[in-house]
Structures are given as structure tokens and as C-alpha cells.
Design brief:
Two copies of one chain form a homodimer. Chain A has nine helices and no strands. Chain A is mostly helical. The first copy, chain A, has one domain. At the A-B interface, helix 6, helix 7, helix 8 and helix 9 of A face helix 6, helix 7, helix 8 and helix 9 of B. Chains A, B: This is TetR family transcriptional regulator. Chains A, B: GO terms for molecular function: DNA-binding transcription factor activity; transcription cis-regulatory region binding.
């Protein structure tokens, strides 16, 4: 029942945005009674923060699994960028974006969202370092990984108003080459 | 009076978000009668789209002026990135972000916002090409400029929940070096 409520919340955030999401609507979509919903998640903020955290945990586990399917050597960097790009164009990114933006002007939501944003940001950084198999102790490498993740967030944002996949593929083709050259340069 | 309404709208979008912005609140902040406000901008959508366009026009003019103050030769790339970063951490970016995200789940707003998003995106791309003084006919250069702008949008997003200026400065230091080396490589 908990999982059904969280999945309905993500669907609601993606379809109707944060402002259009309500605990009543989520209960209805999930087919769960209001009483049961209130028992699990007393407030809208509890519900939306738990839903984004739940989805993040799922995505992190998927990255662990994807690790095994990525090519080794040539083509790996581009494949890693492709895997990370799937995340910024997924319902997780859309739902998280709705939360981050709503939290900007809602102090109570911000108090719940800020720790989650830090945690997911660090988690994704660690995942990117693992997938790219880079050594962050070399000067500049950490910043290149951070830039890669910020670039991906920008690409996620650019994809929210329409399908940006062709432009994104060209940018990531170029960025994979740049990243490989730069990592060699910094090595 | 028109300018006062548009500036009040930006203030309202930045402080209260899209959901918290209303034509009544904007009239109040601007000190303009409801009748006069409705005469200039009949709907909330008219008001918010005009406000973001107005601010974009101002920023574009500022970039034209900034052009003259940028160093030539060494240090130029980093200075250009700094100027562009100011834009993604300004009220313009915050107000535009509120609109883009709200438009995702609001068809009527999307119809007004989509052309503005394309126009401002193209405008900023042209500004970046001019400031960086690069030749986009060389293969890969266009994609690097686009990646730079998407990186900046990602950095803008990362700055919405708290001050990210120190991390941003380190990333842009590294990005400036990367960009200079890559542009030489692609040349």
C-alpha cells in the first residue's frame, strides 16, 4: 500500500505539478482510503518527499545494475553519459524538479527537501565517479565530474518543455570526446 | 505603469513562485489599480510571460554592454563564463524557471511560454557565441557552446535552494580551461 501511494504521488507530480498535487487526489489514484493514506503520510509534504526519496533509491539500485552492462574501454564514457541522461529525462527528475522549485518559496517544504537534495546530489556524484572510473584525487577531476552532472541537469531542464533528445545526443557525443581528452590531460 | 507591473510580477514570481503569484497581488505590489492592470494585461499568463520577456530583453542589452568590458586574450573565457553565470543566478533565471516548470503541466501557459523559451534559448546561444568569439562552422564548436549553456542552466538550478557560489566558481575555473583546450583541439 505504501509503494502504491508513493507511485501515485510521482504520477501526480509529473502530470499535475506540485501545485496540482493533493493528498486527496493521490489517495484516489492509488485506490487507497483517505484514512490509510493519512496513517502512512500525515501531510502532503511527507508524501512528496517520501515519493522522491523512494524513486531515488530505485534509480540508484538501477545504476548499480547498469554498471555490469556498460562497455569497458572505448565507448564507455559515452555509454555512461547515456545512462546518466536517462535519469535526467525520467519521472524521477521531473518529480524532483517540481519539489526543488516549490521548496524555493515554501519554508516548510524546504526544510524537508534540502537534506534530500544534498543526499541525492552526493549519491549521484558517487555513482558518476564509479561509472566513469576516474580518480578524484587528481586536481580538476572532481570539478569535471561535477560539471558533467550539472550539464546533465541543464539537459534535463531543457527536456521538460519538449523532446530534446536529438540535440542532447549531439551534445553528449561531443562531451564524451571532450571528457576523455581532458581526463587524459589531467592524468 | 507597464514597467512597474512587470517588475512587481518578477518580484512576485521570485518571492512566492508561480502558484503564489496572482494579478491581485501584483497590482498591490506595483501600487496600480486593478482596472489599469487588467487593461494592460487581461490575464495572469499575459502578465508573467510579458514580465519574463521584458527581463530577458534587459539582460540581453546588458550582455551587449558587458561585451566592451571583457578582457581580450587570456582570461576572456573565464570572464565570459562569469558574466553568463550571473544571468543564471539572477531573478531572470528564477522567474523563467518558475514559468518553465509551471508550463509543464498547464497547456495554456505552455502555448505562451514555448515560443519565449525558444527565443530566449536562441538569443543566449548567439550571445555566448559572440562573447566567446568562436567559429561555429567548425565541427563540434556548436555542441560545446550548447553544453556550456546547459551546464550554466544546471548551475542555475543548483543555486535555487541555497548559495552555490564557491562550488560554481571551481567548476567554471575548470570549465574555462577545458573549453580553451578543446576549442584549440577542434580548430
Amino acid at each position: 500500500m505504501r509503494a502504491r501511494l508513493l507511485e501515485a504521488t510521482i504520477q501526480c507530480l509529473v502530470d499535475a505539478g506540485f501545485a496540482g498535487t493533493s493528498t486527496t487526489l493521490v489517495s484516489k489514484i492509488a485506490g487507497v482510503s483517505r484514512g490509510a493514506q493519512l496513517h502512512h503520510f500525515p501531510t502532503k509534504n511527507d508524501l512528496v518527499v517520501a515519493a522522491v526519496r523512494h524513486l531515488y533509491d530505485q534509480r540508484a539500485a538501477e545504476f548499480e545494475a547498469a554498471q555490469r552492462d556498460l562497455p569497458v574501454g572505448e565507448g564507455r564514457t559515452r555509454a555512461v553519459l547515456g545512462a546518466l541522461a536517462e535519469y535526467v529525462t525520467s519521472p524521477f527528475f521531473t518529480a524532483a524538479l517540481e519539489l526543488w522549485v516549490a521548496a524555493r518559496s515554501d519554508e516548510q517544504l524546504l526544510a524537508a527537501v534540502a537534506p534530500l537534495e544534498i543526499e541525492t546530489g552526493r549519491g549521484l556524484h558517487r555513482i558518476a565517479v564509479d561509472l566513469l572510473q576516474v580518480d578524484e584525487t587528481r586536481p580538476g577531476v572532481r570539478e569535471l565530474v561535477q560539471a558533467t552532472l550539472d550539464l546533465l541537469r541543464g539537459l534535463g531542464l531543457a527536456n521538460t518543455l519538449g523532446d530534446d533528445s536529438r540535440r542532447r545526443a549531439r551534445i553528449l557525443d561531443q562531451w564524451a570526446q571532450t571528457l576523455d581528452r581532458e581526463l587524459k590531460e589531467l592524468g
